[in-house]
Amino acid sequence: MSAVVVLITASSPEEGERIGRALLDERLAACVNITPVRSAYWWQGRVEEAGETLLIVKTVDRLIDTLVGRVRALHSYTVPEVIALPIVAGNPDYLRWIEESVSQ
Q1: What is the C-alpha separation between 97 and 101, in angstroms, rounded?
Q2: Which alpha helices (H) appear in the chain, and where do they start and end?
Q3: What does the alpha-carbon distance between residue 57 and residue 54 come to, in Å, rounded to a whole number?
Q4: Residue burial 77-92, b: 16+ Cβ < 10 Å; e: rest
Q5: What is the largest CA-CA distance in the chain?
Q6: Rounded to the nearest 5 degrees, what angle is found at the Cα of 33, between the Cα atoms of 91 and 58?
Q7: What number of H helices and E strands is found in the chain?
Q8: Which of the residues 31, 45, 55, 82 has the least number of beta carbons within 10 Å of its own beta carbon?
Q9: Which residues, at least 6 apart from 57, have a Cβ–Cβ distance to it below 8 Å?
Q10: Residue pair 46/95 in contact by the 8 Å Cβ criterion
Q11: 10 Å Cβ neighbour count for 76?
Q12: Residue whose C-alpha is closest to residue 23's, from 59, 77, 49
């Protein structure tokens, strides 16, 4: 299995915490970092700006489809950001911990 980082933006800290907790409780994530961000993005033909909450999720690639489905079910956005980035290298003990955490 390959470890990945998944980026998810949420509309508020409360929504981010609710989604993050569900991913942890369902063993779809080993770790979720939650932090405020300021976003600027194209939406319906114009640039929008908003305060959002960013989730930085550590998981494995085999769980991405399930994780995306779960986020879509829990999220308030019509088109939630859920993007996975491969972890190309890192502390082998930490990467092993990610795999063990989502496999229990």
Answers
A1: 6
A2: 13-25, 64-74, 92-103
A3: 10
A4: beebbbebeebeeeee
A5: 46
A6: 45
A7: 3, 4
A8: 45
A9: 5, 6, 7, 8, 20, 23, 29, 31, 32, 33, 67
A10: no
A11: 10
A12: 59
Q: What is the pLDDT of residues 23-63, one digit of tens each?
A: 999 999 999 999 999 999 999 999 999 999 999 999 999 99
**73: region left, alpha or beta (phi > 0 left; psi from -120 to 50 alpha):** alpha
Rounded mean pLDDT of 11-31? Answer: 98
pTM for the whole thing?
0.95
Integer Cα distance of 27 and 1 in angstroms: 15
Location of structure tokens 């929008």: 48
Amino acid type, 77: Y
Alpha carbons 27 and 101: distance in angstroms, whole number: 7
In angstroms, the CA 49 to CA 43 distance is: 10
Phi-psi region of 101 (alpha: psi -120 to 50; beta: other; left: phi over 0): alpha
